[in-house]
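Quick one: structure tokens for this chain, please?
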Amino acid sequence: NGAQRPGAAVGMSSYAVIGTVQGPAGGRGPSPGGRYRSGLAPSRAFDFLYDPLYALSSEKDHAKANVQAHLMCDKMKKMPIFKTMFSSLIHYPWYNLRLEERNPVPAFIDQRWRGRAQQRLEVLQQLARSQPSLQIPQIVYEDPEINGRNRYKYFERPYIPFHKPFPLNVAYAVAKTEPYVYPSIISDRSRSPTSRTLGTQTDYRDGEAQTDPYSPEYVVPLGSIPELLTLATLTWGRGLPAGQAEVEMIERAREKRAWEATLPPLSDLSQTEKRRKMMDDMERKEWAFREQEIEKLQDVRLEVLKKLLRRREEDQNEVDVNRLDTHWFNRQQDKEERVRKIKHEHIKAMRKLIAKGKNVEGKLERRDVIRDYTDYASQPYGPLSRIGYFPDNHSERYVVKNHFLNTYEGLLELEATLPDSVIQPQTKAPKPKTTTTKEGFIKRTARLDMELAQVHQVLLDKKNKVKEPKKPLRFLQKITKPVPRPPTPTLLKPSIREEELELAVIFLQKLIRGRAIQNMMFEGKEKRLELIRELRTTHALQEDGQLLKKAEKQVTLALQRQRDLHEHKLSLVENHLARIEGRALVNMFDFLSKELVRLQEERKIHAFAMLAERERRIREAEESGRRQVEERRRREEDEVFKQVVQVHQSTVDSYLEDVILNSMESTAEEQAREEIQKVAVEINDIAYEMESRRTRLQSEEIVAELVYGFLIPELQKTSVKEKVRQSQRKHISAAHQIIHRSTDIVVAQNSSVVGQQELGGE
């Protein structure tokens, strides 16, 4: 756990926590990665400077805490800009935001990181471990005064939201081997335990506390091996907290220790066979347990492989679905594009057919300019782009861009240049030359007189128009001869049969046109029949006409009554026949519907029977396939087990072979070293003895042998090498001269050729 202040517990949870409370000297170093601080309330801004127990893991964290504290204390201040002080535009703000720095920490407080001293102490401790001669002075802590004035810091009741008695749970921890060194002032006081366990309340969770749980120091008495130390390899996250596998491992270790205690000692030679037999049994048990573990591991790997295959299949299915969706989307787009083109072609074809239908006979019509300009949907007003006219192209060139029209100052200048008559116009209504009514309209007679006068004036102008004489030619003009006309084509005289056919067709066309006009007139008469009758009734004012109308009316009423009676009789007969026919049809349809339902039910039953038979066959096939898969898997597992056992046997054989070879090599090497040392000692003794007995003449003989054996052959070898080098130097110099001579000739020839080429180019 990180360094803790008094009153803070090591364990932390969302409710009440029972933990070990450490004094100021009992905290451990913080874990890397940031600051960890246990407490009942969140830290303040500058706790990392004031609080002596506030620990930070590195200088980087110290800088982060300093920046956060200044951001909490400093404030943003608006500083106005003189040039744009009264601006309301976004891109010209009237102020800037500046950070107003406030440093509430006094100058005498050291704002540097306090971890340097701890790092130096750790380095010295590491040096002391590697160099025993280096002595580090013992750190003496001041008295925490747990039973004195600081007692309130180490005891605190938890805050419980409900009214229920909460007993104070206090558990005393084991005292440390090296107690504190107290000053002489309070040496007479009674020593209290260095740590206690109290119940505390906190707002934090375990996930917000330290990374690893607190592990207290311990001392192992001589001659004892606690069982708990056998689990020292288990750490937090790797075996801790213990699960079922760890508990089984601990139980197996206990059984093995109990079994080892029951083994006969090695010193008892009479029970060697019993010990070997017990060890063989234990080895077989271990191999069986190992095989079970391998089977479990294989099952787990098989499940993982199944999950991976299932996931891969799902991913592949998803990819296939996405691909099909993309393909379907592309096909839909192609379909829509084709439908759009077909519709477009259909519209074009219909437009062409309509245009052809307007002129079936293929007659050429002259352009009616008046009709074109009176119809605002014609080509002069709205030309079609398919004809080749695009009215929107280069439309910006027609936009009037003028300084006097686009700016306010230009408008003022333009207004100043205009006279008052333009700015302030005065209009007078013209007096009509013709007579008008009180409302101001021209009378019809006056309008007719005006039109007649205009027509008379136009006729007089045409009548009195004098032809202008031809002007004489000032220059000679060339008279071009007209191009001769091509010969007039002649047609062959058609036969009498063709003429009769053509006349018959023309007559038929006339009949059809006449019939069409007659139908149009008849349709118009039918549409306006009421109007015709109304006109006839209004004009039939004579008595004879009225009498005729009354007689016609009575005749029509009588005919209408007769027709009503006849229709009533027919309706009665039809109703009776319809009733009879309906009864027969109802009976027939009822029988047919029942037969249809019966046939449908029979087909459903037959279909259900077929489906049941198919399901039974499918299940039988699946069961047979599953049985085959299980048999194949059983064979595979048997083969895997055989291979594993074979591998284990081979590994054991290879291990034993390696052990035997290594032992043989080590023994052979030791024996060789011992023999070599013995031979070296004997040779040294002989050499020392010869040195002690050797005379001057023997020494000179040895020197002469060394000279004749080593020095003189070496000199002869160097002299032979020098002679060979001298003999080779002659040949090398001759070869160099030949090569240099040939290269000089080639260079001279090349230079002359290049010079001739340059002269020829000039």
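Residues 383 and 389 are 7 Å apart (CA to CA).
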